[in-house]
Amino acid sequence: MDQRTRTNYRMKIEDEQIGNHTFAEEDAVWQLVREGDVEGVKKSLRVSQPVHPLIIEHDVKKNEEYMAVSGIATLARVAIGAGITSAESFLLSDLMLRKLSYSKTIQDIYDVMIEAHISYAELVRDHLETRSMNNYVEDCKKDIIKNIFKSISLSDIAKDLGIQPAYLSRLFSEYEGQTVTDFIHEQKISAAKNMLMYSDRSIAEIADYLKFNSQSYFGKLFKKLTGMTPKVYRDTHHLPEF
Predict the structure, then answer these.
(1) 117-167 per-position pLDDT tens digit
(2) Can you give the pTM of this predicted structure?
(3) Distances (CA, A) of 212 to 40, 43, 70, 204
(4) What is the pLDDT of residues 37-76, one digit of tens each?
């Protein structure tokens, strides 16, 4: 890099420092990454990277490479702090560092850093969305178990969780590999098995207690899931002292 370019670069650094760039500004961008705010990151990034010291005055490009490596390492740790696994974060870090190694100009380095910020924000965003979806599924299961002795419907659960039934249905199937209705049936039959084993309530009473529409439907579902009728199950598993 010639003296003119180096001088202009240093003047640019000084001009931006006069513009009162602070650590708080960099941290503001990192906070957007922590929140997975991709659009916010894009809006906050300037054409040039945030101001930083000119450590290697005789080699401006090398200076930018060092600062970029430091920046990517910081982003990796910001992402880990947001819940990304170390493996995921460092995998992306390796990819960004590999791209950085191919940079031939200062602008190439800037472009890699812009991509790194956006990519990490996207990684965190996807993680937060997935975690949120998992929370809905877990809350759905808890709601079913809590209300196992009541009539339970997908629409009622979705209303309790504050989301649309179709959305809950899709999430549940995606994460559990079965429908909400299938899970409800499994839990009700599991409760029925315990009642048949540990209580003397009649099969009709158990069917009613678990809010099945009829004893006949209860019997068919029980046999489908256990391979035996409620009577055979009781005869096989009922404990005498009960």
Answers:
(1) 999 999 999 988 888 778 899 899 999 999 999 999 999 999 999 999 999
(2) 0.57
(3) 51, 55, 62, 10
(4) 999 999 888 644 544 554 445 567 888 888 899 999 999 9
| CB contact burial 136-175 (16+ within 10 A = b; e otherwise) | bbebbbebbeebbeeebebeebbeebebebeebbebbeee
Chain center to CA of 77: 17
Cβ atoms of residues 58 and 141 within 8 Å: no
Please name which of 101, 100, 77, 98 lies closest in space to residue 89, comparing C-alpha atoms: 77
Q: 26 near 41, Cβ under 8 Å?
A: no
| Category of 239 on φ-ψ map: left (φ > 0), alpha (ψ -120 to 50) or beta | beta
Residue 198 to residue 158: CA distance in whole angstroms: 33
